[in-house]
Amino acid sequence: MDRIHVPPVGPMDLPLSLLEMGCSGRFELITHQLPGQPLPPLSTLPHGLPPTSLSLEREVEKQFLQDPGWLPIHDTDFAFQKFLKVTERKVNVDALLNCTPSPLHSGLSVVRDPTTGMLLDFTEVLLENTSLSAKNSLSLQRQPGPPSESLRGSNTNYPFLPGGMDELTLDQIKTRSEQEEEIDFENDLLKVPPGLKAGMDFTDKEARITKPEVNLMSLLSALEDIPDLQLEAEEKEDSKAGEEATKLPRTNSLEDLGIKETLSSPSSAQAGKEDKSKVKENPEEKKKWAIPVNISSPCEDFYKRIPNPAFKWPFELDTFQKQAVLRLEAHDSVFVAAHTSAGKTVVAEYAIALSQKHMTRTIYTSPIKALSNQKFRDFKNTFGDVGLLTGDVQLSPESSCLIMTTEILRSMLYNGSEVIRDLEWVIFDEVHYINDAERGVVWEEVLIMLPDHVSIILLSATVPNALEFSEWIGRIKKRHIYVISTMKRPVPLEHYLYTGNSTKTQKEMFLLMDAAGNFLTKGYYTAVDTKKERTSKHAQSFGSKTAPQNTTASQDRAVWLTLLHFLSQRQQTPVVAFTFSRTRCDDNARSLDSMDLTSSVEKAEIHSFFQKSLSRLRGGDRQLPQILLMRDLLKRGIGVHHSGILPILKEVIEMLFSRGLVKVLFATETFAMGVNMPARTVVFDSIRKHDGTGFRNLLPGEYIQMAGRAGRRGLDATGTVIILCKSGVHEMADLHVMMMGKPTVLQSQFRLTYTMILNLLRVEALRVTDMMRRSFSESHRDTQAHEKRISHLKQVLASLPPLDTEGQLSDILPYYHTVTELRHTREALQQAILESVNGLKALSVGRVVIVNNKQHLNALGVILQVSNDAVNRTFTALIICEKGNEEGGPNGEDNGALPHLYNTALFVPEGPCSHTVQKLKLQDISAITVKTLKVIPDRIIDNYNKRQQPRFRNDPPGQAISTATQELLRLAEANPGGMATLDPVNDLQLKSVEVVEDSMRLRVLQDSLKDFSCIHSPTFAEQFTRIKERMSVQEELDRLLFLVSDQSLSLLPEYHQRIKVLQSLQYIDGSGAVQLKGRVACQISSHELLLTELLFENALSPLAPEESAALLSCLVFTQNTQTEPHITSTLKEGINRVLSVAQRIGQLQRECGIAQTAEEFVGQFKFGLTEVVYCWARGMPFAEIALLTDVQEGTVVRCIQRLDEVLKEVRQAARIVGDSVLGSKMERASLAIRRDIVFTASLYTH
């Protein structure tokens, strides 16, 4: 539409104007114009009429000439003067103040006519908790954050409150409960609504029949009707409620408060339900969180209990699957441990279907990215509404089922992602990965951080300690975990030994373990014999060279050709051959050049599938040597699968294998971790593998996991597992352990990481010690039992009689402490003497010692025999005593006051001297004297034992005994004040610092005992026993209080060391508040200290984008390389800088006490791929890059993909610091490496 030019208003024009009324199209004529107002058409719309067409001139002027943002930075004077001429700039100071509007604390509510429903009025209602936001609260009541942060959250957000953490302290609860009353769901509820004549019957019996299970859905529906009743109830019961309302503190579990009533508040209704049922059963019994589910009996009433399931399968479910589905319907958490291919995925599928039915979300986490991709494809075909989140891919994140790696879920939990609100299930697949030393800690963090409303499904291979693990999760989450464990294999396995190596011997396959799991030694011995026979024949013809341990390539080739020929004849393909080295995989596959296992139809199918899958690659990439080699191998039905293969090729091979077109697959162990890709036969090239430190036999868990790939459900009756015996038959013991042994137990790999510490320090309400206390490594701490015992001991203490510490007894407490210290010192000394050579020499036969125990007080004895048991060594000795005290009769109770400590006077019998022969412990010997006696031990012992029999009871003692007794008595009478004893330092030559200190302390303590006045008091003995009793209770109480406190956490010292490191690097301040550097480190998932330091030292500024990408490759590359990279000088400087920063951090950690040495810390960073990444970022084709290094193509691709994630993290970090230049540089680096074959999308996600 052309613009109409209206001439300016002249004096002759009438002053009138049109006003458009809103958008209705009505106009009003305005004749009396207000002075100073323009005449053109006016409007009641807030921004005036929409412009008909813009004047370009005006726009350009406004945008370019009058916008101060366009002013040049340099040479300001001249430009500025010009600028001022062009524009009249109005100063608007208020524009600098930017305040987000505070949330409204009230809302509008509608008042309707109760009969007609007509709107009558609006009333203002006050809203609660309006100030809660993701920046200050852990509550689910807080406002959602901005949509851009809803998926991944933000690192300034608080996480949601982890389940099982105690929400409020008691003081907070008191103030809370003064402000608000809890609804009492048991008593004083209104039965008749106001205005109605009849009401509802809320009696217990009805409720119990209709609702045996309380689950979340039924609770919600019950709660919807309550607020209205509550208002009425409050009006009526206000006066009563004031006095009577039970102020029930809000915690997540009743037992935290020791409250065992069945009264429950809305927030703890779930916990209350569990508590009630437990209390009824048996209040004494310790609460068990893990509940094993019996799956031996079939589940008959399954279809009655679930008439319309959320998901139906075309096959009948096994018992364990039905039990799991029943638990899911009840909204319980489950742990399912079963063999691969037993059908654990059913449980996951049902949970996803349930969450779609409930309109909630499910997160499925897996340990490996490839696994995530495969699951994405499977679930996408089944459910449709599925999204994928991995480090570099994000597909439909709004879906109800999200598949992701565990690391991403961890960062979502720490960053308070909004997805967590709608989450109903989290499914952890392959939970036995928690044993992984590097990444196991992630699982534990996620399990600890999950909020209360999320139920957990754990799927794992068979593990022996599933119950213990579930008990731990149940305890930290305060909810029951149902453990469903099955050892049944849908397809049983048969294990064979294979000794063939030529067409003549190709049938030499011996059954070692049958399908029922019996180990057959017969098969083993036959295998050994056939092998022996052949070697002896060989020796006859070629001289007796012992068979070499390692076979040559040609021998290997012979074995494989023979075996595969044999298996394909018997139609035992597809075969997975597990080989524990990548080069061996490649060599074996290449050596089978004469073998062709596919028909022409299959060849055509393989060819077309291969071409179609690789059609996405650029021309040059399709000609990569690895791809050409693999195409040739695949056509003949042979595949290779390990981490050195390009990811896209790996996927092609997996897909062809699952279609049955790859007949032989040479794979490393990682293939067994992947999804269900069963074969008919599994072959073990060897049973030894290198685990990064050295060679070892396969663990039972690893063997079971890999052997479990044999046998396809519904296709094979049994699966075949073959162990090759190339050089010789393996040891029977090794085979037995490997096949019959227990799989590896789940063990905690929990360790502190700086990211974890910083993420928890950001949030005042979460403490790192809480995280440590909840970790699986601390699961042996049964705090609840300790708490009970503590309260019991406190009561005992309170009930003990009071101490009398008046007058003479005023120093009885210090006396007790001195005596106790003396006892400990003496025990330590005796221990030292016993462990020394000289001490044992001194305590030999004939040595006179001073004995103190319940029966004897400072009595002399002579050693007759010393036992050989080094742990609890005993000494048989002859001791003098009063006549009639030989047995240490009933009067020999514990001499509580320990008088011998200050009284050195030796025991001299008042009446006739008698003797006894006793076995003494080291504690009974209070001193070793300098004297020895000549004794005949055997005679003395025999004579004494003889006189213990009733008929010789009254015989006189033998010659040897009388002589010894007389000698001891003579010594005692000669030295009534005490005998000279051997001094451990001077006489026994024990010169260690501890012994010298102890013996000096002993002397001081013994001297000080004489000065106490309490020993002269007549009631001393009685008071001393009392104080002993009280102190023993107190000591146990202190021990338990220590165990419950944070001080006993095994990782606490390391935590303090790491805090020290963070403080000295200024990531946190003295009070533990996270500083800017700490905020940056939170963004980074691995090597956070090094990266943050490099950022703050501007180490990346002088580098070009491709150089910085190359430099950062040291963080993701972990292998050693042989080739020497050729790199630019700036890169060399960069590398030196990184190494010096790493050295600095390593030394600082060492100074703060962390065990890792600086060399180890620096050694983590490997620069083998710098040249490769540099050339790749500069656009060199992949084929040329592969020639620059000896690292395999697949590893290079994986490293560059992970590098992209690091670059993203650095970009985020640069944004936080405000370094936009670095941010854009990282973006450019990221774009430079994201191309071609390295970032081809996965075949599974299309």
UniProtKB/TrEMBL annotation:
Q: What keywords tag this UniProt record?
A: ATP-binding, Cytoplasm, Helicase, Hydrolase, Nucleotide-binding, RNA-binding
Q: Which SUPFAM superfamilies match?
A: P-loop containing nucleoside triphosphate hydrolases
List GO BP terms, alphabetically: nuclear-transcribed mRNA catabolic process, 3'-5' exonucleolytic nonsense-mediated decay
Region entry Disordered, spans: 136-157, 234-285
Localisation: Cytoplasm
| Top-rank taxon, per record | Eukaryota
Which regions are flagged for Basic and acidic residues bias?
237-247, 272-285
In this chain the Helicase C-terminal domain maps to 596-761
Instruction: Kindly give the PROSITE patterns that the UniProt entry links to this protein.
Output: HELICASE_ATP_BIND_1, HELICASE_CTER
Q: Which GO terms describe its molecular function?
A: ATP binding; hydrolase activity; RNA binding; RNA helicase activity
Q: Which reaction does it catalyse?
A: ATP + H2O = ADP + phosphate + H(+)
* Entries under SMART domains matching the protein: DEXDc, DSHCT, HELICc
The segment(s) forming the Helicase ATP-binding domain are: 325-481
What GO cellular component is one of the record's annotations? Ski complex
What is the protein named?
A: SKI2 subunit of superkiller complex
